[in-house]
C-alpha cells in the first residue's frame, strides 16, 4: 500500500463529518475543504458550493469536444457513530488491523470516493490528462436524504451535463468478487390509523357492543397477503416485467442464497412469495411490510380495555414497472374496501421513491464490467440488483437524463451505519484501479 494514500485515507476518516449533527457542522465544512484540496491535488479545478445545508464539492478537468463526459458521485458525510460503547476503538481515530481500516465512514463512503479521487490523480500524473471529460461531485448530505442536491442539480444542470454517472456506494457479493448493481427497489410508506369509540372503554361494560380497533386493524393487515405470500391488492403487480431468464440463472450461481440468508437472519425458516427464490424476492419482487404496530395496553399484566385506536406503519418496496403513486392508490382502495364495520380508517402517505433498473449489458454497462474485471483480475463480475433504495439515482435520471452505474466496493460485513465499520485496504486499492480502468474503458466508446 502506497503510504501517502494510506495517510490520506486516515486523515479523511478523522473528520467527524456527521451531517445530521448540528454540533459537527464546522467539522463537516472542514471535511469538504479537505476533499476540495485533494481533488485540486489530483489535478482538477474545484469549486466548493454552499447550500442551505452542507457544501457540495465539484471538481472537473478541462472539457474538450469529442470526448465522453463522465460524472463520479460520492459523499463525504457519515452516519452518527452511536452507540459509542460498542466500538472497539474510537470511531474517528482510524486503526488498521490485519490490513482492514476501522473507522466511521471507512466503507460508507470515504474509502470508496477517495479511491476514485486518488485514481484520477494517478492518471493525471502518469498520462498528463484524463481520457474523458470528468466531473466529480462529492456531497455532504447523503446520509440525511441529499436534501439540497436536487436543487443544486437543477440550478447547475448545464455545467453538470454528462453522458453517465458512476457511483461506488453499493455492495459486493463477497471479498474479491467484483459486483455491478443494476437495479434497486423503490419505496412507498403508508400509515394506518383505525379509530372506534371516543375514548378507551371498559371491555366488560362495552365489549361485544362496540367494535375493537385493534381487531379491525389485524383483519385489515391480514388482507394484504394471501397464504402463498403474494400481495392480495388487485392490480398490485400490474406492469412488472417478468424476470429475465439470464438474471435468474446468474443469481442462482452466486456464492450465496437461502442457506446464507437463513444463517445471517436467524429466522426459523424462509418465507416469501411463491415461485421465487429468496434473492429474487428481495431484489426483483415487491413487498408489503408492517414496520410497526400499536394500540391498546402495552404494559405488564392485564388491563381490560377496549382501545379507542390502533395504528400500523407500512412500507412497500417497489420494483421497475411500478409507480409509487399508482400502486399506493390501489392499496388505499383495497384497504378501504376491507375495512371492517364499526371503525374509521385514516391513511396517511409517507415518503416515496421510484425503483431503478439499468441495462448492465448496454455499451456503458459492458465497459463497466470490463473495468471491474481489470480491478479484480481473474474474477467474473456478479450482476445483481439490491433490495434497498437509493433515491438520488432517480434524481440524476430525472434532472440530468442519464443512467447511473453502481460499482460498489462494500463487503457484506463492512458494518456501514453500525459500530466497527471497516474497509479492507485491498478494496481501497481495487477502487483506485477501478477508477483508472473505468475512465479508459468508457473513453473507448467515444
Ligand atoms: Zn450510508
The gist of it:
It is built from 12 helices and 18 strands. It has helices at residues 3-14, 25-41, 106-127, 149-155, 213-222, 245-252, 258-265, 278-284, 324-337, 363-375, 391-400, 425-443, and strands at 45-49, 56-60, 69-75, 95-97, 100-102, 133-139, 164-167, 179-184, 186-195, 201-202, 287-295, 305-306, 309-318, 344-353, 356-357, 382-386, 404-406, 422-424. Strands 1-2-6-3-7-17 form a 6-stranded mixed beta sheet, sandwiched between helices. A 4-stranded antiparallel beta sheet has the order 11-13-9-14. Strands 4-5-18 form a 3-stranded antiparallel beta sheet.
Layout of strands and helices, then pairs:
Layout: H1 3-14, H2 25-41, E1 45-49, E2 56-60, E3 69-75, E4 95-97, E5 100-102, H3 106-127, E6 133-139, H4 149-155, E7 164-167, E8 179-184, E9 186-195, E10 201-202, H5 213-222, H6 245-252, H7 258-265, H8 278-284, E11 287-295, E12 305-306, E13 309-318, H9 324-337, E14 344-353, E15 356-357, H10 363-375, E16 382-386, H11 391-400, E17 404-406, E18 422-424, H12 425-443
Parallel strand pairs: 3-6, 3-7, 7-17, 8-16
Antiparallel strand pairs: 1-2, 2-6, 4-5, 5-18, 8-15, 9-13, 9-14, 10-12, 11-13
The protein binds zinc ion.
Describe this structure in words.
The chain is of the alpha+beta class. The protein is 33% helix and 22% strand. It has helices at 3-14, 25-41, 106-127, 149-155, 213-222, 245-252, 258-265, 278-284, 324-337, 363-375, 391-400, 425-443; strands spanning 45-49, 56-60, 69-75, 95-97, 100-102, 133-139, 164-167, 179-184, 186-195, 201-202, 287-295, 305-306, 309-318, 344-353, 356-357, 382-386, 404-406, 422-424. The strands form five sheets. A six-stranded mixed sheet has the order 1-2-6-3-7-17, sandwiched between helices. β1 (45-49) and β2 form a beta hairpin. The mean pLDDT is 96. The structure holds zinc ion. Zinc ion (ZN) is lined by residues 79, 108, 143, 416-417.
Amino acid at each position: 500500500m502506497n503510504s501517502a494514500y494510506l495517510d490520506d485515507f486516515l486523515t479523511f476518516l478523522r473528520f467527524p463529518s456527521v451531517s445530521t449533527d448540528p454540533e459537527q457542522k464546522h467539522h463537516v465544512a472542514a471535511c469538504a475543504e479537505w476533499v476540495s484540496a485533494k481533488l485540486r491535488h489530483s489535478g482538477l479545478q474545484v469549486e466548493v458550493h454552499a447550500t442551505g445545508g452542507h457544501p457540495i464539492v465539484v471538481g472537473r478537468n478541462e472539457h474538450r469536444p469529442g470526448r465522453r463526459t463522465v460524472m463520479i458521485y460520492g459523499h463525504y458525510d457519515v452516519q452518527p457513530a452511536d452507540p459509542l460503547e460498542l466500538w472497539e476503538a474510537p470511531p474517528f481515530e482510524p486503526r488498521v488491523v490485519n490490513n482492514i481500516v476501522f473507522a466511521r465512514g471507512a466503507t460508507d463512503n470515504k474509502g470508496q470516493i477517495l479511491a476514485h479521487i486518488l485514481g484520477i490523480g494517478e492518471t493525471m500524473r502518469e498520462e498528463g490528462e484524463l481520457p474523458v471529460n470528468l466531473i466529480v461531485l462529492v456531497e455532504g448530505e447523503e446520509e440525511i436524504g441529499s436534501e439540497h442536491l436536487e436543487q443544486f442539480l437543477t440550478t447547475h444542470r448545464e455545467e453538470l451535463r454528462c453522458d453517465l454517472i458512476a457511483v461506488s456506494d453499493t455492495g459486493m457479493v463477497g471479498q474479491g468478487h467484483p459486483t455491478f448493481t443494476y437495479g434497486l427497489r423503490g419505496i412507498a410508506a403508508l400509515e394506518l390509523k383505525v379509530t372506534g369509540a371516543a375514548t378507551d372503554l371498559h371491555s366488560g361494560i362495552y365489549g361485544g357492543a362496540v367494535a375493537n380497533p385493534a381487531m379491525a386493524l389485524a383483519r385489515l393487515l391480514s388482507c394484504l397477503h394471501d397464504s402463498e405470500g403474494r400481495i392480495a391488492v388487485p392490480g398490485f403487480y400490474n406492469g412488472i416485467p417478468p424476470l429475465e431468464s439470464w438474471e435468474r440463472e446468474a443469481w442462482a450461481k452466486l456464492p450465496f442464497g437461502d442457506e446464507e440468508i437463513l444463517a445471517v437472519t436467524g429466522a426459523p425458516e424462509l418465507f416469501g412469495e411463491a415461485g421465487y427464490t429468496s434473492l429474487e424476492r428481495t431484489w426483483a419482487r415487491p413487498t408489503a411490510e408492517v414496520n410497526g404496530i400499536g394500540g391498546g395496553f402495552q404494559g405488564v399484566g392485564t388491563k381490560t380495555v377496549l382501545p379507542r385506536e390502533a395504528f400500523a406503519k407500512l412500507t412497500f418496496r417497489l420494483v421497475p414497472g411500478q409507480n409509487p403513486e399508482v400502486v399506493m392508490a390501489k392499496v388505499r382502495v383495497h384497504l378501504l374496501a376491507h375495512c371492517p364495520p364499526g371503525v374509521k380508517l385514516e391513511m396517511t402517505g409517507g415518503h416515496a421513491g421510484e425503483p431503478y433498473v439499468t441495462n448492465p449489458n448496454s455499451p456503458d454497462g459492458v465497459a463497466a464490467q470490463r473495468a471491474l474485471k481489470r480491478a479484480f483480475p481473474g474474477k467474473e463480475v456478479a450482476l445483481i440488483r439490491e433490495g434497498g433504495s437509493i433515491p438520488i439515482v432517480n434524481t440524476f435520471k430525472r434532472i440530468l437524463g442519464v443512467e447511473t452505474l453502481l460499482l460498489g466496493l462494500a463487503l457484506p460485513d463492512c458494518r456501514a451505519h453500525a459500530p466497527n465499520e471497516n474497509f479492507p485496504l485491498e478494496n481501497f486499492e481495487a477502487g483506485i484501479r477501478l477508477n483508472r480502468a473505468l475512465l479508459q474503458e468508457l473513453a473507448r466508446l467515444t
